[in-house]
Predict the 3D structure of the following.
Amino acid sequence: MVSLNPKCVTDLESDVDEDIERLKSRWTSKEDENLASLVGRFGRDEWELIAGYLPGRSAQDCKYRFTVVLDPELIKGTWTKEEDEKLIQLVSLYGDKKWSTIAKHLKGRRGKQCRERWHNHLDPSVIKTPWTKEEDLLIIKYHCVLGSRWAQIAKFLPGSALLLWSVGLGDLTILSYINDVSQVADVDVAYQIIDDVRKKMTNEKPRKLPNIFYVAL
C-alpha cells in the first residue's frame, strides 16, 4: 500500500492545527453586528482602529471577516457566463496567482472566489478522468491522517484541485470502506474492496470538488 511522506504528514497536521484555531475564534453575531457598524463609521481602511473596539480581534481578523463574509457588495451567488468569460480573460492576462488583482476587475467578487472558480470549474488542466485504484489507496492513506478533511487532502493529490471522490457514498459507507481497506496488507485484496464499493455507486459524477471545500496548491 502507498506510504505517506513524513513531510506531507507534518504539513497536513499543520493545516489541521490552523483549522482548529479558526474554529476556536468563530465570530459571534454580536461581533459581526459591531464590525459592520464600525466599518460604516470609520470606513474600509481603518482596520487597526476598528480592531481596537473588538477585544481579541486583530486588524487582519476584522478586514478578512468583513471583506469575505459581511461586505454587502460581495456577490455570493452563481457565477454568470459573462463573469466566467471575464475571469478566463483575466487569468490569461495576469496568470493564476494574482487573485487579488484579478478580483479588482470583477465587481463583487473576492480573490478567493476567483481562485476557486478557476481551479474548480474553468481551469482546463484539472483532471476529469475516472479515479484509479492507486488514487483510491492514496486518498485512504491521507484520510487516516486527516479524517474527512477533504480540503487538506487536496493539497497532496495530483492535479490542481481535489476531485470529488466520495460522490454516491454515505458517510457510514465511506468510513467502513476506508477502515476495511486501510487494515489489509494485500494490495489485491484492497483493490477488491474498492471494486465492491464502486458497484454501490449508481451515478458517479465528475470529480470536481464543490467550491466550499477547495484549497489551492
